[in-house]
Amino acid sequence: MSNIDSLAEAFMKFPGIGTRQAKRFVYFLLAQDPYFVDTLSREIAELKKTIVQCSGCFRFYPRAGTSTLCNVCIDDADSATLMVVEKDTDFESVRRSGGYAGHYFILGGTIPVLERDPASKIRIHELLTRVENGAKDGLSEIILAMSVNPESDFTRDYITKAITPLAEQLGIAITTLGRGLSTGTELEYSDGDTLRHALKNRK
Ligand SMILES: [Zn+2]
Predict the structure, then answer these.
(1) What residue numbers bound the domain in which 19 lies?
(2) Structurally, how many domains does the chain consist of?
(3) Ligand 1 centroid to 77 CA: how many Å?
(4) Residue 8: pLDDT band by 50, 70, 90 thresholds?
(5) If you measure from the C-alpha of residue 166 to the centroid of ligand 1, how many angstroms do you get, rounded to a whole number?
(6) In this structure, are 125 and 186 located in the same domain?
(7) For the segment 108-117, what is each residue's pLDDT rounded down to a tens digit?
(8) Whole-prediction pTM
(9) Same domain, yes or no, for 142 and 194?
């Protein structure tokens, strides 16, 4: 197998990339100057060394010191609320809106509607543990902040069912952000005003 084929195979593992697009990426790289390709290779090689996953919220962040927690989990967060989002880019949007000052939890995906093993698609066990630990630090509300589309709706319902018994036992309220957003809304593309409004009107 040539380097062209092997690299194309690697690109095909990327989300949403098929054979033809993968090949186009390879030929694109061949057409670039060596500096671009060298820089890109170095960025990729460094990625896993400089970026780590937070043991509290599971988001990826630049490693600093020896803590396994990110700056948001350590510093400036109000431990009474925990916002559950689908992915790192959703976290970034909410953070940028400036309308929320509590803790976060990144689910790591959504559950396809016909999925037979839903628990394998998101960090549901980790979330349950996080809620249990959070209760010791005064957690009183879990905000489910998902996008508004069938897969996200399904995921939200699954999570609600999974955490309700524990939340009830610990006296923690479960609220939803999605109702403040219109149908088809992707959280990561929502502007600051929309997010702040949805947060204020959560139910
Ligand atoms: Zn964190």
Answers:
(1) 3-52
(2) 2
(3) 10
(4) very high
(5) 22
(6) yes
(7) 999 998 888 8
(8) 0.80
(9) yes
